[in-house]
Amino acid sequence: MPVVTLRLFRGDAGSGDFAEYRGEAEEGMVLLDVIHRLQATQTPDLAVRWNCKAGKCGSCSAEVNGRPRLLCMTQMSLFPHGEPITVAPIKTFPIIRDLVGDVSFNYEVAKTIPAFRPRPPDPDGVYRMMQVDVERVQEFHKCIECFLCQDVCHVIRDHDENKPYFAGPRFFVRIAALEMHPLDTHSRTEMLRAKAGIGYCNITKCCTEVCPEQIRITDNAIIPLKERVVDDCYDPLQWLFRKFTRKE
Amino acid sequence: MVQEQYETHEHDVLIIGAGGAGLRAAIEARAVGVSVGLISKSLLGKAHTVMAEGGIAAALGNVYSDDNWRVHFRDTMRGGKMLNNWRMAQLHAQEAPARVLELERWGAVFDRTKDGLILQRDFGGHRYARLAHVGDRTGLEMLRTLQQHAVAQGIEVHMECTVTRLLKDGDRVSGAFGYRRDTGRFVVFIAKAVILATGGVGKLWKFTSNSWECTGNGVMLALEAGAELIDMESYQFHPTGMVWPPSVRGTLVTEGVRGDGGTLRNSKGERFMFRYIPEFFKAETADNEDEADRWYTDKKQNRRTPDLLPRDEVARAINAEVKAGRGSPHGGVFLDIASRRPADYIMRRLPSMYHQFKELADVDITKEPMEVGPTAHYMNGGIRVDAETTATAIPGLYAAGEVAGGLHGSNRLGGNALSDLLVFGRRAGQHAALYAKSLSGLPTADTSRLAACARAALMPFESKGTENPHAFQAELQETMQSLAGIIRTETELQEALVRLGEYRQRLPQVRVEGGRAYNPGWHTALDLYALLTAAECVTRSALERKESRGGHAREDYPSTDRRFASVNIVVSKRDGAIITTLEPIREMPDELRQLIEEKR
Fold it and tell me: Could you give the ipTM of this predicted complex?
């Protein structure tokens, strides 16, 4: 069985450093398996967050050799033989312990998003929507809230001070899902401009690159939302038009 | 005083578990107008509900207008081999459509029919295409919708918090004691009513589709508080889990693969399910490949493919094929959709299965068959509850979702889990809230117990033993896998009981290192007590039922036995011992009985 060297961050918000472990990797194993094996045999208190181990819950986000990834979907065969693998907690959020980050920022932002407000149903009491009209929203609903997009976004990764003014890619996807929902009646463009700080995004597409669900965050969510903000908030003709036909 | 020593929260209704049932209960309790606290063992939105793939069973009749609650009720009862609580099965079938439409009103976006209605897919044991779905990630859609709706209602959520004991005030429940994962600090909840929505016990077995959380905490909490469990011998091994590579063995492969046209084959290429059609389902199951294949498009003229027999039947058939030496290279069988449906159809219908096999097994399911085998999946039994209110025998204690028993009898149909969460989650929230409203003041928690709760939780740090909690859990799983798994016998079950007794003796020797902050070794150690309790309940019940029925198969009693046809096995704890008793099932009213006897 091939032996691999892992350099894992051990410590908490106060202090910490990378510690080296040697573990065995069987054929077909993912990085989370190797970490679990270390936990079971060498260091039982090693903190790592995980749930489904099938890429569906988005709990085991970490930075592997500097790249944001899900530990459960990272095949060991990906790594060059003999080189140590470095695993660190996601950098944008405070560390709780070892590989576990405090992602509560995201749950606070979630509370500020104006909820879904559907139009009334058809006269027979049900809603009709065509498949072609819901596919874009379904793409956004694939989000597993791993927060890797939040982690990689330089607006908050490198500037902690932006956090109060910037919702981050995950929540642009969430807002896009609401704005483009065929039944929704609410407008969130002013909120996007003033509170969610969509203007800070300069479309470097890092979020799209790390998304394990392959959601085209920048192209399909952020850019259309930016266009809506421009239309609604900065276009004088639109502004005038809205004066009369405004949807609230 | 409580307040001085421990972080304390007061709620009218405390809900333990934030999966589908817990969230739905929270929303309903809040709507009744009481204060609600929701405890989540993980982060919010990560509950095991996200792993549900295929869909939500509800007789909306969007694809087959002949479908209605009566047919759904019949399918559920027959799937459960008639051990079901018929009143729960009735309420479930009647209310599921409204619960699904409600999700849509809260923002869920299901796949659509050509007319723009909610599309429904075929699943095992359902006469009609009945499962509302979103590709193969329905659980995620449902959980996220409930989560966002609950957050919008301002429900207070205690994330990464685990309850180790329920608190009582005399006979009635009065709160809970637990710890926070991040700090390891203890926390006390005082509540008028408590809803258990903690999910299942999948971590009892080595090959499982369940996450680390599913350690039977709710079963243990209820039993310790004095409530009863039923049908614990009946456990669902999902027929199709991944079998290779070894590290992902057990990971779920949705029944939707078969619902959308996939078929099971052995190493000789035979569609072996045709050889495993039981008498009970003969009249409604196709006995040749042509009819089975025609059934996908014409349900009126043809009978259902045996690939979609209820899960217990399919799991045992796969088990038998592998035992007979006709398995796949890695000890499963083949699940083939590649040769039966076009690649773009597979990609559209089963995107996450495609992704899962590509990433984890390097298999392209649009080109090659999958290798699959049975995996521990779902607790058919659970806490005994009242059908209308979900109340347990303990005043103020309610249970809903996988942790509650009754609805599914001896085998759950695919798709009935998500609808169960919605229907009985709502009922639990409603009735717990009404009960809480009927009480005047907050109960007094028995504070004398708190110190004992804290001491018990800290024991693994002070243990002089050398048992590693992870190794201990793995050993327990090996035992259950080999002695109380998919096929059981008297001698093996007796052996399991002996070993479980030894594990209990060894439990105080479990020792953990490190501190209290986010220490998985400690968390694993604390969950062992619940796992052991659940293991004993399963094993004792399995010994009691000397027949094979649904999710309980005995090699030494291979057929059904009329003596057990209308009894439930009830588990309770008396004087510190877990005991089982047989109780007759309440007589079904004639109008329901007729629905079941009706021929197709």
Answer: 0.96
